[in-house]
Amino acid sequence: xxxxxxxxxxxxxxxxxxxxxxxxxxxxxxxxxxxxxxxxxxxxxxxxxxxxxxxxxxxxxxxxxxxxxxxxxxxxxxxxxxxxxxxxxxxxxxxxxxxxxxxxxxxxxxxxxxxxxxxxxxxxxxxxxxxxxxxxxxxxxxxxx
Length: 145
Known about the structure:
Elements: H1 10-22, H2 27-53, H3 58-136
């Protein structure tokens, strides 16, 4: 990868960023989009100028048209793949949300069961304590025999 840095005035930057945002592009994607458009435009203008001057052949124009058709096809495929990725992401987010909700619910169940378990253990200790006390006082513990 090669990193390029360009400087533009504030008004131009805001205009470009608004355009990129309207197309759903990040600043990096927007710059790449602009560079790609500019390169294609420059190449197309060179071919058209050459055709007008008689220096470019019909084969070169045909090559440019084939390239345009191929790029349009690739663009359609990329947009479809992006659509599929967005759908997969939405499904994952829904699934992830459901799992998080289920996890929260299960954590609450575990908390309640632990409380219930502690209460049952305490009740068992009391019962065992009452049984031990009853074994030491066979007469029932009131007034003696």
